């Protein structure tokens, strides 16, 4: 299995739900509703995952190249 595929699976919706629930415990009350919706979306395999967050962060940096092998 290609390494990035393993990472994409490992940092997929299951881990994203765990992270979003943790964020929900510590977020400002005004962000709670948005995080609850993101948890519900992730439970239906919708929305971005932790892998997507990392990938987007890297791609947003013009000084960094991302190679997915």
Task: Assign a percent range to the helix content.
Answer: 55-70%
Strand tally: 0
Question: Radius of gyration, Cα only, in angstroms?
Answer: 14 Å
Average per-residue pLDDT, rounded, comes to 91
Strand content: under 5%
Tell me the quaternary state: single chain
Q: How far apart are the first and last residues' alpha carbons, in Å?
A: 10 Å
Q: Which segments are poorly predicted (pLDDT under 50) over 5 or more consecutive residues?
A: none
Number of helices: 4
How would you sum up the major sheet? none
Q: How do the SSEs run, as a string of H and E?
A: HHHH
* Tertiary shape: globular
Structural class by SSE content: mainly alpha
Short description:
With 69 residues, the protein is mostly helical. It has four helices and no strands. It is 68% helix and 0% strand.
Q: What do you see in this structure?
A:
- The chain has helices spanning 3-10, 13-26, 29-43, 50-59.
- The protein has 69 residues and is mostly helical.
- The N and C termini lie close together (10 Å).
Pick out its properties.
69 residues, mainly alpha, 4 helices, 68% helix, globular
Question: Helices and strands in order, then pairings?
Answer:
Layout: H1 3-10, H2 13-26, H3 29-43, H4 50-59
Helix pairs in contact: 2-3
């Amino acid at each position: 299995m290609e390494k990035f595929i393993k990472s994409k699976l490992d940092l997929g919706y299951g881990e994203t739900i765990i992270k979003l629930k943790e964020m929900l415990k510590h977020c400002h009350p005004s962000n709670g509703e948005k995080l609850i919706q993101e948890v519900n979306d992730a439970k239906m395999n919708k929305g971005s995952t932790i892998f997507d967050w990392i990938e987007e962060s890297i791609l947003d940096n013009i000084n960094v190249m991302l190679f997915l092998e």
